Amino acid sequence: MVKYIDKKLACELLPLRDENSNKGSFYKILNIAGSVNYSGAAYLSSISALRAGGGFLALASVSEIISRIAPNMPEVVYIPLNSNSNGVISSDNKITELNDYSVISIGCGITTDNDSKKFTLDILSQINENQNIVIDADAINNIASSGMRLSFKNAIITPHPKELSRLLNVSLDDILENREKYARIASQTYECITVLKGHNTIVTDGEEIYINTTGNSALAKAGSGDVLTGIISGLLSQKLTRLNAALLGVYLHGLSGDIASEDLTKYCVLASDVIDYIPFAFNEILNME
After folding, report:
1. What share of the chain has pLDDT > 70, as a percent?
2. Burial group, residue 204, by CB count within 10 angstroms (0-12, 13-18, 19+)
3. Over the stretch 233-265, which tens digit does the pLDDT of each residue have?
4. Which residues neighbour 178 within 8 Å (Cβ) at sequence distance 6 or greater?
5. Each residue of 112-135: pLDDT tens digit?
6. pTM for this prediction
7. Is 15 strand, coil or helix?
8. Which tens digit of pLDDT belongs to each residue from 33-50?
9. Is the predicted pLDDT of residue 289 greater than 70, yes or no?
10. Contacts 24+ apart (CB under 8 A), 282-285
11. CA–CA distance, 140 with 201 (Å, rounded to integer)
């Protein structure tokens, strides 16, 4: 039976904020993102996590990216990584403090370079059962091209249809014609929560299917998926379950786009604008309580 992600459900899922709290009251987030040609992905996925309520976020990215975007993100802590000759994360990098983070997001703008692929698989092999991980974009592509059948019981994967077609080795046309079916198959195959992005984004745990009711063509812009990754990470840091973080995350993301398009039109909304409208989306849900 299909369920719908609407304002009533979003209101029920909204995490409570204890007034007697500090940044340490929430899970620490590690965002592994970016490469020389994709600095925006690192920025968007990081700042949106904090905007969605995260208390502490560290960005692990190549040093060139950090020096470029750090002036615009003073709230973020940085973990510089070595890059290869192509300006992507080198496979010889180690994140020694990986276990310090309860929420990890990986994939936004890291590319599918061989070094990036090796690094991605190495990181995924180190994740423990107490950590929540959001796997997006090129991390999904790297898993798909590796041919590995990994289990991600503590993960949320956030593919668009083409990424899911690569992951499941199914044609794009089949994915588009049977979105609910293949989203469920992905969750069952990888034992994870699947967020299949697109108009009426689908969220499933492999059993129940949820369809989002917010969002419009304003979100059909580069960087929009990076913002969604950040929002979900920020909600996970507030100790929501993986399923609930995914459900609320896609609703807030879509609602932010809806509100932004009312002011800016569906033509003119940028991914960075969506971040600016996240507070208005929260406020709309809060006013229903």
Report:
1. 100
2. buried
3. 999 999 999 999 999 999 999 999 999 999 999
4. none
5. 999 999 999 999 999 999 999 999
6. 0.98
7. coil
8. 999 999 999 999 999 999
9. no
10. 282/14, 282/252, 284/7, 284/255, 284/259, 285/7, 285/10, 285/11, 285/14, 285/252, 285/255
11. 17
**CA distances, 130 to each of 24, 99, 100, 158, 268 (Å):** 17, 9, 11, 20, 41
> Which positions ≥6 away from 26 have C-beta within 8 Å?
53, 54, 55, 56, 237, 238, 239
Quote the radius of gyration of the chain (alpha carbons, Å). Answer: 17
Report the amino acid identity of residue 62: V
Mean pLDDT of the region 163-184 = 98
pLDDT of res. 23:
79
User: Three-state SS for 104?
Assistant: strand
CA distance 225 to 228: 5
Question: Taken in order 65, 58, 281, 4, is the CA torsion positive or negative?
Answer: positive
pLDDT band per the 50, 70, 90 thresholds, residue 18: confident
Do 212 and 203 form a contact (C-beta atoms < 8 A)? yes
**Distance between the two ends of the chain, CA-based, in angstroms?**
27
Give pLDDT tens digits for 1-14.
899 999 999 999 99
pLDDT at 25: 84
**Pairing mode of beta strands 209-212, 202-204:** antiparallel
Q: How far is CA 201 from CA 3, 135, 269, in A?
A: 12, 16, 19
Q: Which residue has the tokens 């492999």?
A: 206
Domains within the chain, CATH numbers bracketed = 2-15+25-286 (3.40.1190.20)
